[in-house]
Every structure is written in structure tokens, then in C-alpha cells.
Amino acid sequence: MNIPLLVFFLCFILIFLIRIPIALGMLMASLFYFAAASGPAADLSMAATQFLTNMNSKFVLIAVPLFVFMAEVMNSGKVTDMIFRFANAIVGRRRGALGHVNVVASIIFSGMTGSALADASGLGMMEIKAMNDHGYERGFSSAITAASATIGPIFPPSIPMIFYSMLSGASIGALFIGGMIPGLLVGAALMTYIAIVARIREYPRGEKLALRATLAITAKALPALLSVFVLLGGIYTGIVTPTEAGALAALYAILVSFFVYKAMGIKELGKAILNTVKTTGTLSLLVGTAYAFSYIVAIEHIPDSVANLLLNVTENKYMLLLLINIVFIILGMFIDTMCITLVFIPIVLPLINTLGIDLVHFGVMITLNMMIGLSTPPFGMLLFVVSGISKTPLKEVIKEIMPMLLVLFGVLFFVTYVPQVVLFLPRILGT
Fold first, then answer.
1. Could you say which of 15, 222, 231, 284 has the lowest number of CB atoms within 10 Å?
2. Residues 6+ positions from 35 with CB-CB distance below 8 Å
3. Cis bond leading into 157, ω under 30°?
4. Please, is 299 exposed, middle or buried when counting C-beta atoms within 10 Å of its C-beta (0-12, 13-18, 19+)?
5. Whole-angstrom Cα distance, residue 138 to residue 396?
């Protein structure tokens, strides 16, 4: 019997049973493994070695605090207000217009932050209040806000895709641009659902603005909207790396918030920096401990065992993709997205390579899968965020979001089995 591995798994199970923070739990499981091991592995310093060596070797990780900082700056009231007003202007006079505005605003905002939680917490309160004031049910308003926020990390930029690139070696540029069409598909699918529900429930129509008013709102929103072009334009023209693009976009966000919208002062900037440091510290600890954890998974050949287990079930790659999607959806119901990314994706990557599945296609597919997990009961984080900011009972949000999840699962199925949806743009642009 492999005693160290048994100790490792028991510790990992206890992490979830007694609700230890995931980073601390993975570190504890790794330390107990090295303490129980014999031979070369019997060295507690290996945990620190894996933590520090891998963290120092990943230049791409610098992009994460930059994107987090940009999200904090863009979450200033004036910027989010401009995005909401612009989305409202372009949707037009249609039934259920504010539901459509919710989705369109999420698509725009996702091009600035790459974070589902930033979208839900930043635009969410404004969107939910506007919908409630116009007669939408609180549960529906909150649910569509959570569902549309899943677009954030699918549409570029994307913090989860940065971590996936770090683990798999897939091109960040290809992942970013590969997420564009799936992100728009999610938006289109949700807007189709909103149109159907709006007709059944007779939700109010939106206000049709005159061309002059629309142009005025667009002009005011333009500085905020240009941040998307600063970020993505720099990456896809090859002028800067994704990390450097994050720095440029963060600087641009500061200039816009300070001098254009005058929505940020020194005090607000300090708060944004403090929040960024807190978030980055949490993510860095999580990444470092995940490396130590993944080192143990690798030396114990757990990915090979998982691959053999799945291949014994079926060798058909389409069935295996279905099984992987089901497993990750179930994980997403209970486990944090970052934990899934850093712990479970490395376990299935060898199988993906064996099957010859494109790493960019798989990366976008699994990111979409995990984002759906954020809105899936019982522990989807977005459910708690929108419930908290709107003061809506969680059961009402869950009731309304269930049919939306079916819509999202439909998009996931399409993205899984039509890889050209993901790979078309990267191949055209040569990324």
C-alpha cells in the first residue's frame, strides 16, 4: 500500500469536509505527503522548492495582477455607468430590453476585465436595480446577471485562460481570440432566451433613443470602450505581449478614470491597489501550493491512471470529451474554479494530448465549462454574489437560473463538438 499517497488523499478530502481554505489545504496535504514519503521524496523542503521555482519561472503570471488591477479601476462607478448607458442605447426599443442590455453590457465589460466576479459585482448592482425598477422579477434580474457574467472569462482577456496557458503551454493569444466566438454565442443564446421569456411574461419595452442622443452617449462611452482595443489590439498586432498589454491597459484605465470621467482620485486609486494586492496575494498562494500539489500528482503517475481509467470506459474521443465535461460540471458545483484549474486540469491534460485534441479548443471549452459552474447550484459563486448585492433569496435566483443553465449547456455542447467555432479566428489570424 502506498502510505504517502493514502495520507495525501485523506488530507485532500478533509480539506473539503472541514472547509479549510483551498490554498492552505493543498499546502498541508503536500507537506503531509513529503513527511510520510521515503527515499528522495522524503524531503519537506520539496514543497517550498516546487512553490518558489515554478512561481519564479512563469513570466506570464505577471499579467494576472495587471488584469485584476484594471478590473478594479474599471469598476469605478462612472466607467460602469457609461458602459450600461451605451448598451442601453444600442439595444433599441424591444420587449425585455433591459435583459438584453444586461447581456450586451457584460460582453463589453468582459473585454476590459476578464473576470466573471468583477462583472457581476461591478455592473450587477446597477443592472439588477434598473430591471427591478421596471417590473422584472428580482429572481430573474439576478439570474440573468449571473448567467451573463459567465461571458467575462470566455471573451478576451481572461484570467482563467492565463492559468490554463501556464499549465498547458497553449498560446495565450490563440486562447484569447479563440474565446471570442463562443463568448458571442453565449450572449446570443441568452438574448434569445430573454426574448422568449419577455414575450411570455410581457416585460416592458425599452426606450427608443433618437439618433442624436445615441451618438452623444456613444461619444461619452468611447474612452471606456477604447480600452478593449488598447488591450486586444496590442496583443493581436504583435506589438506587445499579453503581459505588456495588461500593463498598457491598466495605465489607460487609470488615465480614463482620472482625467476623462474624473471618477477616481488618489484615495480610490489606493483602494484599487490594495484590493489588487489582496487578490494577487491570494492567487499567488493558490498557484504556488498548486505547483507543489501537482508535483505529487505527477510523480505518483495519477494522470496516467486517470487516462487509463477513462480509456477503459471508451476510446472514442467524443465520448471522452462528454465524460470530461460531465466530471468538470460536477466539480464546478462544489469546488472553486481556481482549484479546478490548478489541480484537475493537469490531471486530464496528458489524456487530451494522447487523443490529439487541440489544446486551444480544449482550453476554451473547459473555461466555458468552469464559468457555467460558477452559476450552477449548490455552491456556484456567482449565485451568492448576485443574491448578496440584490438582497434576493438564493432559492429565487436558483429557480430562475435553471432554464438559463440549459441554454448555457447547449452552447457548451456546440463548442465541444464543433472545434472550428474556437479555432476559426486563431487560424485566420495566424495566432
1. 222
2. 42, 44
3. yes
4. middle
5. 8
Of all residues in the chain, the percent with pLDDT exceeding 90 is 19
d(CA 188, CA 31) in angstroms, rounded, equals 47
My answer on whether omega of the bond before 242 falls inside 30° of 0, hence cis, is no
Between CA 73 and CA 251 the distance in angstroms is 10
H helix or E strand, kind and range, residue 317: helix 317-334
**Alpha helix segments (H runs only) across 356-393:** 359-373, 381-390
- Residue 240 phi, psi dihedral angles, 5° rounding: -135, 160
Cell numbers 503551454 correspond to 169
| CB neighbour list of residue 373: distance below 8 Å, 6 or more residues apart | 328, 329, 331, 332, 333, 337, 340, 380
State pLDDT tens for residues 269-327.
Answer: 888 888 888 878 877 777 777 777 777 777 777 777 777 787 787 788 899 999 999 98
Cβ atoms of 193 and 148 within 8 Å: the answer is no
Rounded to 5 degrees, what are φ and ψ at 205? -80, 160
The residues pairing with 400 across neighbouring beta strands, listed in sequence order, are none
Instruction: Report residue 431 as a C-alpha cell.
Output: 495566432
Nearest of 57, 54, 156 to residue 115 by alpha carbon = 156
CA distances from 75 to 81, 249, 311, 424 (A): 9, 14, 46, 32
Identify which of 91, 89, 109, 108 has the alpha carbon closest to the alpha carbon of residue 100.
91
CB 65 within 8 A of CB 200: no
Residues 412 and 368 sit within 8 Å (Cβ to Cβ): yes
> What's the whole-number average pLDDT of the chain?
82
Q: How far apart are CA 126 and CA 130, in angstroms?
A: 6
Q: Is the dihedral of CA 357, 361, 366, 372 positive or negative?
A: negative
**Model-wide pTM > 0.85:** no
Counting every residue written for the chain, the total comes to 431
Q: Which of 385, 357, 371, 402 is nearest to 185 (CA)?
A: 371
For 173-204, letters b (16+ CB in 10 Å) and e give: bbbbbbbbbbbebbbebbbebbbebbeeeebe
Across 331-342, average pLDDT: 79
Tell me the pLDDT band of 414, cut-offs 50, 70 and 90.
very high
